């Protein structure tokens, strides 16, 4: 999205072509090999801010490295305004934490 590109350029001091090292330094994929905790990714299939392709790349690298992760994809953009979907996502987050912290999962 153009407004976000301009925002990023202002925040990072230039575009990716102008200051590639800054963008590389701030890109999560740069540090994916350091992931030590399980990761849950909630990915909107139509997200204009964080395109699902970025999540695909991160997910593939996590898989290559044998990292523990889960991905939940939903039919919306950057978040969902549908209450049932918001509840499903919260249930996913709580269940994920319960599994990885060895606590009791919520009742469905």
If you had to describe this structure to a student in words, what would you say it looks like?
The chain has 108 residues and is mainly alpha-helical. It folds into two domains: 1-34, no CATH class; 37-108, Rossmann fold (3-Layer(aba) Sandwich). The chain contains four helices and two strands, in the order H-H-E-H-E-H. Helix 3 (52-64) links the parallel strand 1 (39-44) and strand 2. The longest helix is centred in the C-terminal third of the chain and has 19 residues, at 83-101. The radius of gyration is 16 Å and the shape is globular. The mean pLDDT is 93.
In short:
The protein is mostly helical. The protein has helices spanning 2-12, 20-26, 52-64, 83-101; strands at 39-44, 69-74. Helices cover 46% and strands 11% of the residues.
Q: How do the helices and strands follow one another from N- to C-terminus?
A: HHEHEH
Stretches with pLDDT under 50, minimum 5 residues: none
Sheet with most strands: strand arrangement: 1-2
The level 1 CATH classification of the largest domain is Alpha Beta
What is the helix fraction of residues, given as a range? 40-55%
CATH fold call of the largest domain: Rossmann fold
- How far from one another are the termini? 38 Å
Major sheet details: 2 strands, parallel
Q: What is the CA-based Rg, rounded? A: 16 Å
Mean pLDDT: 93
- Tell me the fraction of residues in β-strands, as a range: 5-15%
Number of strands: 2
> Under the CATH scheme, which architecture of the largest domain would be assigned?
3-Layer(aba) Sandwich
Query: Structural class of the helices, strands and pairings?
Result: mainly alpha
Number of helices, where a helix is a run of at least 4 consecutive DSSP H or I residues: 4
Q: What is the number of domains?
A: 2
Overall geometry? globular
